[in-house]
Amino acid sequence: MLIKVDPASSVPVYAQIVSQVKHAVAAGLLRPGEYLPSLRETAIAARVNPNTVAKAYRELETQGVIRTDHGRGSIVTDSGSDATTSYRLAELRRLADQFAVEGYHLGASPAEIAIALQSALNALKPQFDSRDAGKETPHE
Amino acid sequence: MLIKVDPASSVPVYAQIVSQVKHAVAAGLLRPGEYLPSLRETAIAARVNPNTVAKAYRELETQGVIRTDHGRGSIVTDSGSDATTSYRLAELRRLADQFAVEGYHLGASPAEIAIALQSALNALKPQFDSRDAGKETPHE
Amino acid sequence: MLIKVDPASSVPVYAQIVSQVKHAVAAGLLRPGEYLPSLRETAIAARVNPNTVAKAYRELETQGVIRTDHGRGSIVTDSGSDATTSYRLAELRRLADQFAVEGYHLGASPAEIAIALQSALNALKPQFDSRDAGKETPHE
Amino acid sequence: MLIKVDPASSVPVYAQIVSQVKHAVAAGLLRPGEYLPSLRETAIAARVNPNTVAKAYRELETQGVIRTDHGRGSIVTDSGSDATTSYRLAELRRLADQFAVEGYHLGASPAEIAIALQSALNALKPQFDSRDAGKETPHE
DNA sequence: GTGGTCTAGACCACC
DNA sequence: GTGGTCTAGACCACT
Questions:
Q1: Do the Cβ atoms of C69 and B12 come within 8 Å?
Q2: Residue D75 φ then ψ, to 5°
Q3: Residues 6 or more apart from A58 whose CB is under 8 A from it?
Q4: What string of DSSP letters covers chain A?
Q5: Which of A91, C30, C60, C84 has the least CB density, counted as fewest CB within 10 Å?
Q6: Is B42 helix (H, G, I), strand (E, B) or coil?
Q7: Which of A20, A97, A137 to mutate to test the interface with B (most CBs of B within 10 A)?
Q8: What is the predicted pLDDT for the residue at B79?
Q9: Which nucleotide is nearest to C71 (CA to C1')?
Q10: What are A5-30's pLDDT values in tens digits?
Q11: Average pLDDT, chain A
Q12: Does the CB of B15 sit below 7 A from strand F?
């Protein structure tokens, strides 16, 4: 779990950390139940202030990706949001729309856009599989 | 071309305007060559400070979506980015990856994610078609 | 709207501010639509660091008591939580239970406890009335 | 006497234990003179560090709810605070006020709030009765 | 003017 | 050891 940050970027450092942790979880580099590196550890590794990491971890907690036990550390909890289905689908549609529009303005064709997504989904396939197995067929 | 803005959102007002104009262009509500509503008009309609709209228009100009003729107004120029192909594909891949990860954390399945995208692309199909016709068959 | 803070208290300063703003709203000293004093103003008045006030305001925002417009300030929004009824009742019951237990351990009788509550509710009566009027009989 | 703890809660684990013991006493699950489960027992049952339980018991002793006999265990002593009447009433009023304000922000009506309290008091009625009998009619 | 981000560093609470 | 609170002060983004 190695976090790298670009302090010159316009996207806030804490948001970069949030994004990287979410990617790591989705990519299976961090598994549910596993501890995240401690605040200070991450702060040193990423060469940022511990407060900044704290803010990122707080944000991850409100998003339901991790859970923090005071005095012990932060644990990956994620196995899908527990939001209502209707909210999830609406949100998904919103993100899809945004992605499609960005693709359009990049000059890509619908086919190119769809292929790019397939490629991204394939890269995450193992995580989807193991999660969905845990959810839908717990009888194994 | 009606612009609505949520001042309490964490995404800056000017960025909301940028995003809405880009959506309008991608959706064909604003066509290349057409004038945007004037800065002042937009400011009143959206109940925001004219400076904020000015910033949004400036940003759109930087992104190559519109062109501003001093004293006359702003015209839609966009018909796809003129960035290099390799940059476009890399950027597209980055966006796709991000979309896939967000979908994962929302608890959606790969199929649901792909379907959401198809649905969004279909909604924009007319724009893609007319643009691609203009691009690929200039022999007309 | 005067905020006072006891830095020696075991309850965090930011939580003291949250509590005082909520009391002020419930008491009608701050009315929906009104601006809160700015971060810096409050920080100076309460003799605390602006960051501490910022944390309090952020917390009030997540609780739905205020709404913050970037660059403009924070506005009182509260006219009752928009949580689901079942959640509200469960939460209310939890708080009531806690209050009753505390009363027991203070050595108070059930009658004393009920009277103390009536007294507190009476003090807030005008606020309840105006809110409920706005909600239930908007035909006036 | 079964203690359950949520390590991810923002209220400290030791405070959760304190609160639960107080509830148990108020609810009559633990009666004056009775022994609490041993420190170690509780630690194992609640899956927490024995030091944490020790801190909770120390706090309960300070509050006058239990008494610890070295080497023998902890006994419930509580049958109401021995604070002065004026302090008790002031404290009660403070708690009532806080409860009323929280109820207001939850969107509840005064009637709903009062009813929630009655319901909570009724659940504790047997304890109040037996305690008050012991206090007010020691002539038996 | 407003609030937001980040840093540096002290001190505390919890386990 | 862990995370949480608070301060001081710089700098930025938004309106």
A1: no
A2: -115, 140
A3: none
A4: ------TTSSS-HHHHHHHHHHHHHHHTSS-TTPBPPPHHHHHHHHTS-HHHHHHHHHHHHHTTSEEEETTTEEEE--SS--S-HHHHHHHHHHHHHHHHHHHHHTT--HHHHHHHHHHHHHHHHHHHHHHHHHHH-TT-
A5: C84
A6: helix
A7: A97
A8: 61
A9: E2
A10: 998 888 899 999 999 999 999 999 99
A11: 88
A12: yes
- The model's pLDDT over B65-85, given as tens digits with 9 standing for 90+, comes to 888 888 888 899 866 555 577
Which of these, A15, A93, A83, lies nearest to A52 by C-alpha position?
A: A15
Q: Which DSSP category does D70 fall into?
A: T
**CA of C39 vs C1' of F11, distance in Å?**
17
Nucleotide nearest to C72 (CA to C1'): E2
Distance D37 CA to F12 C1' (A): 57
**DSSP annotation string for A52-83:** HHHHHHHHHHHTTSEEEETTTEEEE--SS--S
D78-99: average pLDDT: 80
According to DSSP, residue C35 is labeled B
The answer to whether A74 CB sits below 7 Å from nucleic acid chain F is: yes
3-state secondary structure of A37: coil
Select from B8, B12, B13 the Cβ nearest to the Cβ of C67.
B8
DSSP C36: P
The dihedral over CA atoms of B21, A104, A124, A28, expressed in degrees to the nearest 10, equals -40
Strand partners, D75: D35, D67
Distances from the Cα of B35 to the Cα of B25, B53, B68, B74, angstroms: 12, 15, 9, 6
Covered bases, chain F (protein CB within 7 Å): 1-9, 13-15
- Name the token pair of C81: 């939580």
Contacts of residue D80, Cβ cutoff 8 Å, sequence gap at least 6: C104, C105, C106, C107, D131, D135
Nucleotide nearest to A15 (CA to C1'): E5
How many residues can be counted in chain C? 140
Which amino acid is present at C22? Answer: K
Query: CB under 8 Å to B136, separation ≥6 — which residues?
Result: none
d(CA D40, CA D34) in angstroms, rounded, equals 17
In degrees, to the nearest 5, what angle opens at C-alpha B52 toward C-alphas B47 and B58? 135
Q: Distance in angstroms, CA of C6 to C1' of E7?
A: 27
- Residue A136, pLDDT above cutoff 80: no
Residues on chain D touching C82 (C-beta within 8 angstroms): 107
pLDDT in tens, A65-103: 999 998 899 999 866 666 677 888 898 999 999 999 989
